[in-house]
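Worked example 4.2. Below are the chains of a multi-component assembly; read each line carefully before continuing.
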Amino acid sequence: MAEPPGPVRVIEETPAYWRVVFDYPPFNILDATIFQGLQDLLARMDASPSLRVVAFESANPEFYLAHFDLTGKTGNITTAVGPSGLPILTDTFVRLTRSPVVSIAKIRGCVRGASSEFVLACDMRFASRENTRLGQPEVGVGVHPGGGSTERLPHLVGRGRALEIVLGANDFDGDTAERYGYVNHALPDSELDAFVDALARRIGSFDRRAIAAAKHLINQVSLPPAGRLLDGLNSFQTALTWTEAQQRIQTLLEHGLQREIDFEKRWPALLGELFET
Amino acid sequence: MAEPPGPVRVIEETPAYWRVVFDYPPFNILDATIFQGLQDLLARMDASPSLRVVAFESANPEFYLAHFDLTGKTGNITTAVGPSGLPILTDTFVRLTRSPVVSIAKIRGCVRGASSEFVLACDMRFASRENTRLGQPEVGVGVHPGGGSTERLPHLVGRGRALEIVLGANDFDGDTAERYGYVNHALPDSELDAFVDALARRIGSFDRRAIAAAKHLINQVSLPPAGRLLDGLNSFQTALTWTEAQQRIQTLLEHGLQREIDFEKRWPALLGELFET
Amino acid sequence: MAEPPGPVRVIEETPAYWRVVFDYPPFNILDATIFQGLQDLLARMDASPSLRVVAFESANPEFYLAHFDLTGKTGNITTAVGPSGLPILTDTFVRLTRSPVVSIAKIRGCVRGASSEFVLACDMRFASRENTRLGQPEVGVGVHPGGGSTERLPHLVGRGRALEIVLGANDFDGDTAERYGYVNHALPDSELDAFVDALARRIGSFDRRAIAAAKHLINQVSLPPAGRLLDGLNSFQTALTWTEAQQRIQTLLEHGLQREIDFEKRWPALLGELFET
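Applying the procedure described above to all three chains together yields the following structure tokens:
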């Protein structure tokens, strides 16, 4: 099916298996436009009874989804409420986890902050061994994660590694992310596409009811309660108003965040040295 | 002690340490006969105050326990109730987890579906690096796991890997199973026997009360509630009645499941291609 | 800042980052003196609003903290109550986990029993690849862990590996501890100091409120309830009165525990052979 270009583009490989491509130059920044694309996608998934699996990838090999927008383009995603009754940001991630459709993140490039929380809300995560920079740098920006990682990471990687990821606020490469359990598996970049495609087609051949029932049972013992996710989001909203946070965001933007590709690629590593303390 | 041959054979290495050997040709299919053997074993364990540890192995290096019988030989194991008040299938696994006696699965060969759920109910799992095919292929058969893996795997390997194991429905080798936390440790096949034997004899030398108290404390924070396990079993029972599931089972039996060794060894890998969709 | 020598010595690297050095010859045995040092440290941490992170290390490369004292020098640490309302042993570990200050264990040498439980109460654990002997040998001494490992390990390493660690009662080296998730990461010994120092200085440069809020959110979904920890401690107290436990402790002391360095280094490996059964 021909599909118009757009920031969240759907390619219907088969009626059971869609690829979803993030294509939002220059860096696939996670802003209100991307969230609208994801909301549209979720509505379309809900209306597609033949669909079994969606695999998310990026058109830009250097940026999967860079991070939450810090220039004011996030619209009302933390205040307006989505179909689940939760704020759009949380609603988007929660509906992905609860959907009868399986979601796979195929990761290449930079994935930080709320974008890391997007892949944590996917059912599975596979990453390029050579080309993955995954992390939660929020604490180094003076705030903290608000999109579910403080709730999801401890059950995925254990409390110690969750604290290292969140409080260390640095990038993790593919191999470390696999060893920590942050992603399912890191593969050589040249094998990643074929691996995810084969897994998605395989799941696409299975009975939808069986998939949905199995995922539902696993969800019962593995999803964080919505109240916990809201606590995290509310605390994040408060943190955004702190003077220290505003100053750090300002400094990052002045240094080139969301403008200069070289800075955009490596800014988390610099968080320990960039600010006067 | 001389022990009559049988499908679940006990070898009393010492009063504190028993080996239990699955020996049920041709493939160690998990049916009512094996469950009766396990129920008898549990009763005997309960009546043996000197016992500290049982290690489960297979007489057939290619099949540890193949999988749940799909030809109607499962008797009343999902309907009749065992000593715990739970259906025999669940009762067998739950009593193993709650027993003051330590259980170790020493894995060689194929272990799929309910057999994977048996090893997940053991206290520890050690696997042959070269010779392990472990998985939950149920979703590829049109049903889903019903013996506890949807409840146990998320806490063992995290939600992402649990979903990959259950929804991908494929085999995992020893190294991947170790990396995912599906087994404790994968060892070179030539070292597996000595490793498990040394560990079992060591535990066998410890005080039974100390073992029981420690396992009890860990159980308090790590066992799934019985109600969750029953939800999974009930949902599985319903799934078995679906037309799609019945057709997939029929197709698998026609292709040689439970009859032809070559098909029996590699059928999960074929689940993506075997059925018309 | 010059600091008087002592068993728990604080080195204020910066107002935001302190190193804490265990220096209590001959083996850094965990007794009432060390707990008093930790209680004093916690009070000082609570009174230091500029502090972000403490990193714990040992002055003795062969012993990080050997283990709980078995010669009667533990004072009232399991009976007297600390500021949290819990017994001193539990209070010390619980307050470390709840503190807004980040704690890092930099592990070299032997760390067993209650000392392992100390590092499990730290926010992160980094270990020397060549020089780490970490474990919970209590069950081999006829008792069981009482300082939180039976509650913390299952969520960190999964039930199967927690049972192996606690019931196997043996040492784990750095690589295995990393693979199991028992420590965050094992590094070559020559890189360990620089790695931890860089991470601590980095976290030390972050906003204290952001750190505290992030850790608080993670704690909500990852800390065991105090009631569970008390169950473990009470059960441990009972176990200490068992004749079998008293005999095993006596045998260990006679063989050189807490006296002879060679025995002190390798006693857990000998637990399977030392006692008449």
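Take a moment to check your reading of the output against the notes. The mean pLDDT of chain B is 97. The first helix of chain B runs from residue 32 to 46.
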